[in-house]
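Predict structure. Chain length: 281.
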Amino acid sequence: MKWRCTWCGKPHEENDPPCDSCGHNTFEKAVVRADEEPVDSPPKTVDTGTTYVWRCTDCGRDHVRNNPPCSRCHNHELEKVEQTYDEIDRELETPSWLDVAKPYAPAFAVIGIVALLFATGIIPASILPGIGAPSPPDAPGEGAEAAGIDLEATEGEIHDRLEAERAATDGDSRAYDGGLAGYAEYMNRAFVVIDYEEDRPDGAQVDDFGAECSTRPTGGQLTLADGPITAFDDEDELAEAAADGLLESEIADAVRTGSDSEGVDLHVGPDGDVYVYYVAC
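Prediction complete.
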């Protein structure tokens, strides 16, 4: 009669544990002789029965033997409990992507709100370094409205009057370009800063404002000689004076022909002078 290990099932000639294969300390009498077992017989499993551990009543650490104190907290009370693997199973469970993302939900919400503000234009992309057109210098005076006159609306009327002049003289019709208008605003304010504050803002290029030019940009600034902003009653009078000033300036030929698009900016200085910047390409 041979003996076999109750853990791995290896046969042994004598009941002389431990097993030289797995090191288990318990053998049992073999029912089938090892030399009579089929060579290709499937591996056997052995029911080792209920396993117990000694658990610390304070910190919950499991110990193989009832040998207080606890190796973790030094508590002297250990209780005998059945060893289970529920905690191991729980640790092996893979969390869902929702469980993983839940702690970061507030951060995702903030990122989404900021992205929405940029997408709707509430926050301009230009405030981010290297993104968007450069912000115009903070020039003294007014760039949107002065003396009850809407300067931005007047800029559009100047374009209309120049288009009428070009049509009457067989000049080239051109579109009003928002990128060129942004460049004109930047340059107009920069020159105002130089005049009033003796400071020199950073330079800018037409390409920085997204304008697509088929020819080299041509432009310049002029100060209306017809008087301060208070000399004009409304947008029509101001637009007529600005258009006439451009058509009589040094860049009159560039205003009339040779370009596909244009942009205009008006700015009123602290003393009421009206500054006009024109660019075409």
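Summary: The mean pLDDT is 83.
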